[in-house]
């Protein structure tokens, strides 16, 4: 990692970041539905631009990791890993015991953190009311979960 890359930082998203977050998610064809119920973090570049994002929906003792996206020019540099680790740590602070996600393209990436494939029929309770479970993510998306107790 060079000196300019060290200037990148993860911070809580602010209202003024919404347009950048939505643009990044749209670029990767990730759902925008339900963002109003999601705590978002951004990866801020050394010029102040939003170059990555990830979110957490809290549903009681369960959480939904969503909206992980990194600018294409920064892929394979560890920033996605940093964002996911950050959100998992934040989920622990929220006393979440199980974290879920839905993915169509990044199953191998999330397996590196210990996420395993789950059956959608096992999801019940309030998290099933998430926009992603109600149709924002296609039925073909793989459900993964991680016990973080």
CATH superfamily: Gcn5-related N-acetyltransferase (GNAT)
CATH architecture: 3-Layer(aba) Sandwich
Portion in strands: 25-35%
CATH overall fold name:
Aminopeptidase
Q: Look at the structure and give the mean pLDDT.
A: 90
Number of domains: 1
Radius of gyration: 15 Å
- Please outline the major beta sheet: 7 strands, mixed
What's the N-to-C terminus distance? Answer: 32 Å
Low-confidence stretches: 1-5
Task: Give the key terms.
149 residues; alpha+beta; Aminopeptidase; seven-stranded mixed sheet; 4 helices; 7 strands; 23% helix; globular; disordered N terminus
Explain how this protein is built.
The chain is an alpha+beta fold and 149 residues long. The chain has a single domain, classed as Gcn5-related N-acetyltransferase (GNAT) (Aminopeptidase). Helix content is 23%, strand content 29%. The chain has four helices and seven strands; from the N terminus they run E-H-E-E-E-H-E-H-E-H-E. A seven-stranded mixed β-sheet has the order 1-2-3-4-5-7-6, with helices on both faces. The protein is globular, with a radius of gyration of 15 Å. The protein starts with 8 loop residues before the first strand and ends with a strand.
